[in-house]
Amino acid sequence: MQLVHLDHRNRRSRAGRSAGCRTLIVGAGDAGRTLAHDLQETPSYGLAPFAFLDDDPGKHRVDRLPVLGPLSALAEVVRTEAVDVVIVAIPSLPPLELAALLRQAADSGAAVRYLPAFHAAVQRGSRGGDLWEVSPTTLLGRDEIHVVRAATRAVVAGRRVLVTGAGGSIGSELCRQVRSYHPAALYMLDHDESNLHRLQLEITGEALLDTDELIVADIRDRARVDQVFATLRPEVVFHAAAHKHLPLLELHPCEGVKSNVLGTQQLVDAAVAHGTRRFVLISTDKAAAPTSVLGATKQLAELIVRSRAGSGTSVGSVRFGNVLGSRGSFLHVLAHQIATGQPVTITDPEVDRFFMTVEEAVGLVLEAAAMAEAGETFVLDMGEPVRMVSLVEAYAALVGKPGVEIRFTGLRPGEKLNESLFARSEENVPTGHPRISATRGAVLPDDLDAGLAELYAAAAENDAEAVRKRLAALVPEYQPPVMTAPAARDLLDSLWLDDF
């Protein structure tokens, strides 16, 4: 089947009139045609179909949209036709073929959506509402920032790369993007074997769990961490493993210290000892002027990374806002609450947060790896913070559920009404990237190592009160809240709000 290229002048004029993302539908059968019609009739989805791909050589135009070529031409069509979104609309496609198509589209720079299994389509016909996710970019209140510059890919190309927390939302997206930049080796480390199984299936289409690239390890186990670094000799490390739910760490601060602080120190020290070229920690905006255990432990992790500057390993950190689309975060819980008819839970009518997409988060990490020298912390320009109420209303409108009920649960211990990206004591400095800033923070405390030893001892004893006091001594901006029994019970409401 001959590959068809659209006239670029016509393409630009059509794109200019379209209010949505330029969308290529893979599959011009019944499901694809129904989907294209539904999307054209419902511009609020933000997806504007302009063409199909299909393996039937007899199909040249379907419902006034051209068929540009076979499925094997996907990567080329994405590049040549400026495709924003690819939707795979072949519900009966075998899983391995589906995985290969999704990988081609993602590697070519397009976002990917796909329809559910065939039996669901048969029951009531394929509809736009069957798409498995609403694009987070429609909820940002700003244009998505395409952070990664072409030269940045050289940071990982041909290098041995290790990603910790590889099975998580950020870690798995990091693995997908790093893999597309052709590293010499990509090692994916996680303590959860189920996460690794799912990740390998998503990336390769198979999950035999029999390759050296999958590493089962706990970053809190120093001997195991040293063994991994001594064996693999990673040149670039992206450290995404962490405990990150604010309410749970208020209840279990010792576990937060063991993973977020001790785990980070053991990793960065192993990186220095074994000659790693670059080490990047993934942190959170809650580390700026922290009021929670999560924020305090992440600020300490940033301090530890910065203290290793000048060691021969280029080190740095990145602060994320709330990441739309990450597993367990706002969109997933909100979608479940609305789909099941539950009230949407928000802590306060005036609470707002900084938001970024998974793609922006990963781009920031890769750019930080290229720019980090002296332990800087990098922050993406995320525009103005977004009120949670406005975000819920926008999402409800997109999925056809306006007027959704909202229940306000009240701010929880350690939670801020408004987040900040930089603390008052931090100097905000420009970088070589126009949308990324950096901070070097205050002078490192002289007694950091001694204070950390006392903190680790308290955590090892599972002494929550002592851990909070030690955190406050090391991070003066952090003041542990007074925990009452009712407050402790209320901590488990609205967990999604604090996922970064």
From TrEMBL:
<dbReference type="Pfam" id="PF02719">
    <property type="entry name" value="Polysacc_synt_2"/>
</dbReference>
<comment type="similarity">
    <text>Belongs to the polysaccharide synthase family.</text>
</comment>
<protein>
    <submittedName>
        <fullName>Polysaccharide biosynthesis protein</fullName>
    </submittedName>
</protein>
<dbReference type="Pfam" id="PF13727">
    <property type="entry name" value="CoA_binding_3"/>
</dbReference>
<dbReference type="InterPro" id="IPR003869">
    <property type="entry name" value="Polysac_CapD-like"/>
</dbReference>
<dbReference type="InterPro" id="IPR051203">
    <property type="entry name" value="Polysaccharide_Synthase-Rel"/>
</dbReference>
<dbReference type="InterPro" id="IPR036291">
    <property type="entry name" value="NAD(P)-bd_dom_sf"/>
</dbReference>
<feature type="domain" description="Polysaccharide biosynthesis protein CapD-like">
    <location>
        <begin position="161"/>
        <end position="437"/>
    </location>
</feature>
